[in-house]
Amino acid sequence: MVTTTIATLTGPDRSGLLQLLAKLTHEHHGVWRQSKVINVGGQTAILLEIAVSEESLGPLQQQFLAITNLHCHFSVPKDVTGLNAETIISIDANDRPGIMHDVTQALLELDINITHSEQQRMSATNLDSPVLRAKLNLSLPAGVTPTSVVSALESLPGQIRASAG
C-alpha cells in the first residue's frame, strides 16, 4: 500500500542536496508529488510531498535523517481539496515598520489562510523610503471575495496598492 508523507528539510545550502534526496527517494521506489525549494541567506528550505510504500517509508525517513547538517521533519498531509477558493493578491506599498504585521492581521480578521508569500524590499530613486512588493497566494473562506480582500488591504494605514489576479 502506498502512503504519503510531507518532508520538511532545512539546512545550509549546498550543491547536490536535491540530487541526493531524489536518489534516496528513487532507491525506495518513491515519487515526489510536489516539491518546493527556497534559498535565503545561504540556507535552504525544502518541502517534499513523497508517495512511497508503507514498508519503505521508515527506511527512507531514516536515510533522510542521517544526512549531515540537514534538519528533517515528517508529517501526514491534510486533505485540502475543494475547501476554499484560491486567489493571488499583489501588493505595492511604501515600506514601513509593521506593514507585514498589518497585512497579515487584516487577512487573519477575514479568516484567510496565506498559502504562499514572497516579499521584496527595494529602493526607489524618486522616493524617500523603500518600497515593499509582495505576492500572496490566499485561500479564501466562503463569502470572502478577492475584491473585498483588496479593499481591506488598501484601507490599511500608508499608501498600499493591492490587486487581485
- Distance between termini? 40 Å
Principal-axis shape equals flat
Uncertain runs are: none
Q: Which fold name is given in CATH as the topology of the largest domain?
A: Alpha-Beta Plaits
User: What share of residues are in beta strands?
Assistant: 35-45%
Indicate the CATH class of the largest domain: Alpha Beta
Number of helices: 4
Give me the CATH superfamily of the largest domain.
ACT domain
Number of strands: 8
How much is the average pLDDT? 92
Q: Order of strands in the sheet with the most strands?
A: 2-3-1-4
Major sheet attributes: 4 strands, antiparallel
What Rg is obtained from the alpha carbons, in whole angstroms?
20 Å
**Category from helices, strands and their pairing:** alpha+beta
Q: Your description of this structure?
A:
26% of the residues lie in helices and 44% in strands. The protein has four helices and eight strands. The chain has helices spanning 17-27, 54-65, 99-109, 146-154; strands spanning 2-12, 31-40, 43-53, 71-75, 85-94, 113-122, 131-140, 160-164. The strands form two sheets. Strands 2-3-1-4 form a four-stranded antiparallel sheet. Strand 6 and strand 7 (131-140) form a beta hairpin. The radius of gyration is 20 Å and the shape is flat. 16% of the residues are buried. The mean pLDDT is 92.
Show the helix and strand layout.
Layout: E1 2-12, H1 17-27, E2 31-40, E3 43-53, H2 54-65, E4 71-75, E5 85-94, H3 99-109, E6 113-122, E7 131-140, H4 146-154, E8 160-164
